[in-house]
Every structure is written in C-alpha cells, then in structure tokens.
Amino acid sequence: MHGVTVVLRRLLFFYAAQMGAEVTVLPGRTRTVRELLAGGGGPVFSFEFFPPKTDEGEAALWLAIRQLEALRPAFVSVTYGAGGSTRDRTVRVTERIASETTLTPVAHLTAVDHSVADLRRIVGQYAGAGIRNILALRGDPPGDPQANWVAHADGLSYACELVELVCRLGEFCVGVAAFPDKHPRSPDLDHDARILAKKAAAGADYAITQFFFDADDFFRLRDRAAAYGADFPILPGVMPVTSVSQIQRMAVLSGAAFPGWLADRLTAVAEDADAVREVGIEVATALSSRLLAGGAPGIHLITLNRSTSSRAVHNNLVGQPVRTSSSPSS
Known about the structure:
Blueprint: H1 2-18, H2 33-37, E1 44-49, H3 55-69, E2 75-78, H4 87-100, E3 105-110, H5 116-128, E4 133-137, H6 159-169, E5 173-178, H7 189-202, E6 206-211, H8 215-227, E7 234-238, H9 244-254, H10 260-268, H11 273-293, E8 298-302, H12 308-318
Parallel strand pairs: 1-2, 1-8, 2-3, 3-4, 4-5, 5-6, 6-7, 7-8
C-alpha cells in the first residue's frame, strides 16, 4: 500500500507541475538546508557528487555515498553534468538518495536546453520523491561550456528566473551558485556580486561556491555580496585534489584560478597517486580550517565520487584520522 501511495503522490506532483500549479512539499523527516544552516550547532559539512556516466560509475558512486553516509553530513548533492548531459541519471540518483538512505539530498536543476514546462516537470518529479531542497543554476552551454549562452526558445535566461520559478511552484529551499574567482562570463567581481544579490532577492536561501584555493577570495566575495544586499549564508566549495590533469581541466572549464604554488607541489609528485592525494588532503584541510576560522558556516566538499580524500579532510577537521591508502574508493 505504501508503494502505491508513493506512486500516486509522484503522479499528483508531476501533473500539478505540468499545469504550472504549486507542488508544495509538506514537511516531513527531511529538513531544509535553510533549517540546517540556522540550527546553531556549529559548522555544517556536506558532500557533492558528480552524476555517473555508466552503470559501473553508478556502482562506484553508491559505494562512496554509503561510506560518507556514516559521517552524517548535513546534506549531499548530485550535479547536473556539463550542459545538462546527465539529467536523467542525476534525477534518478537524487531520488534514490531520498528514498534509500538517511541523507538529505539537494537536487540540482539547470535551465540548459529546458523549456519552462520541462523545468516544472522535473521539479514535480523531485517533489514527488519528497525532495525539499533544490540548487537552481543557469548552467553551461551544452557541448562547449565556454560557448555563448543561448536560452531554450521556451525556457529561461538567468538563474534568478529559475529561482523565482521554483519558489512559485512550492515550499522549496533554494540554493544558488557563487564564484570566488568570478563567473567566467562576468565582466568584473562587483558585477558578479550584484548578480548574487539578485539571486538572493529572487528568493534564494543560501549559496554554494565553485571550488577555489584562496580563502581571501571567499571572504572578499562574502563581503562584496553582503554590501549589495545578499544577506544569506554562503557555503565554500572545497575540492581535495586527487588528479593533477583533472583539476587543471576543471579549473579551465569553471574559471577557477589554479595557483602556481599548488601546481608546483602537485607536479613534483605527479607520478605518485598516493602522494598527490596526500597533498590534496593537506591543502584542502588547511583551506577549510582557515575558512571556518574566518566565519564560514560550513564546508561543502566536492568528492569527485570518491570518498577517501573527502573523509580524510572531514575527519581532520573534526579530529578523527582516517586511513588514506590507495583503493577503488579513494
């Protein structure tokens, strides 16, 4: 009977969203990120996963999810993939996290190649799974993240429009993206901060940053955003480096600054995977410690679908060492 009830609820939310009606998610066991950040229990820790491209990748992802579940993070999120390329897997994995684990999932949603009707349907699907937290992102152009942005003919052009849509559809907690190193398409840092303030004014409850390596860049972003009226928590995204080539590629795509001192340290041990990982853990731990000391509300660890480095950084910060030898879950 419970299974039938869940199916009927999902259908109800799906059709309500298709018609543009509110798809309110009633309060349940899942707390919102807004509530978690306001809880006053000290810094929050969360983890971000990338959508797998294959069934084998999905199995590896679930191993990491189960290992990190034991740390009882505030929430976890699954990204949408470049250009919305892994939407179906993202939605499926996020729904499964909601139904099969004790974790609080944050559902990523982008405007890439989606009509407003598509977006309503996806929000209804998330709501039907009992998901109350959505990270609303404009997203990158499909195929070439550096290309000019072209909106869907029946879609949205800006993240703040997506925030407004999600807020109209129901009682969701909405997060947005922030960029300590400036969004690649922003002309300057001030413009970037003004855009973040517009997202807050549209109804966003908090922001999560792109990964970065200089704590001062985060603090400057926080101060600029506050000056323009973005009065909400900003969670720093921290990525423990596990691969030299991968982090360089991601830095180019995201516009994040990849500092020379870190490149030098990693290049010196590039042939030793364990040494690269140890450098990544050390740098991410030091960065996170400084961010927390400077008042960051928590740390959002970008896992690259492997748990060992993220567990090590988390446990370094809370005083519980973890073994970091090579394994498929590194």
